[in-house]
Amino acid sequence: MARAREIGIEIGVLPTGPTNSVLDVDGVGIGHTTIHRDEAPPPEGRGVARTGVTALVVAEDAYARPAAAGGAVLNGAGECTGFIGAGEWGLLETPIYLTSTMQLGRVYDSACRIELERDVRVADAVVIPVVAECDDSFLNDCRRMQVEHDDVVAAHRAAMDSRGGATPPPEGAVGAGTGMSCLGFKGGIGTSSRITPEGHTVAVLLLTNFGERKRLTVDGLHLGRLLPEDPQPRPPAGSCIGVVLTDAPVISADCARLARRIGLGLARTGSTAHNGSGEIFLGVSTTRRAPGLSWEAGDVVSGAGLDDLFEAVVDASEEAVLNSMLTAPTTTGRDGNTSEGLDPTTVARLIEELARGN
């Protein structure tokens, strides 16, 4: 397994950050709990589990000093708790958790418990954690409640510990991405970052679970047409949860504009946002924080100044999709269903052949 750049795929012209991931944004951390279990069904066991939890910590003190945030929806067949509040207030005050559709309630409960334990003020002022989901039921037995409180705590702890990390975080079939499929192959967690000419860092995290193999596009090349058909075809619906983080001082309305550009990156890889797919995106500025939201006008990046940030989001989103697939191995789950890993060697060979005009 390899990331896109390790096999010569370089999306766009902007440079990446040191880890080419969300860890390049100061103060951000990401952690996973992967649940991979093969047991008999109840009462003897808990069945086949290919699921998990991913926690994205935007700032350690987000509840005390919320970050500017905004969201966008490309197609709304999905769920993200806290999304309405972020849109109304323009603020994010909790980590962002990703998981599978049927586990969302459990993760939400645990996220509340984590915040209550971290800040006593939550008991009086309450909190609405941000928890988003994709459907992993092709590989995961979603009839069983596979996620426990300790799994969410472990993902959060790992995210806190990862801040400032110098190496890329795990991608592919990890955490919430364990049971996801993308463009007819194994999908999951993917991330990438860019540095703008002004020195701002922009990073994208995706949970990919969408699309058809025949539409797979890599850096503008229609590779899906050259690959064997999916041996276990499935409906093209799915979902993609996307988060864009930047250290640029951006107001909440423009965080939503950044988030919307994730959809352009997905389209480059072959997404058409099918009727049953949920493409839900959040944008967050880690430097525009309450109570410091009253920036002087000259300090805020806005208007045409956002163009480089927009470019960074689109390119990082496209690359994050590819990373989510190229790092994910073939996975077999519920009822023997199999999601084939996208072989990096095959991708590199096809790109070379197309470049030679073969």
UniProtKB/TrEMBL annotation:
Gene3D superfamilies attached to this UniProt entry: L-amino peptidase D-ALA esterase/amidase
Coiled coil location: none
Annotated family: Belongs to the peptidase S58 family.
A Pfam entry, by short name: Peptidase_S58
Protein name from the UniProt record: P1 family peptidase
SUPFAM superfamilies recorded: DmpA/ArgJ-like
InterPro entries: ArgJ-like_dom_sf (IPR016117), Peptidase_S58_DmpA (IPR005321)
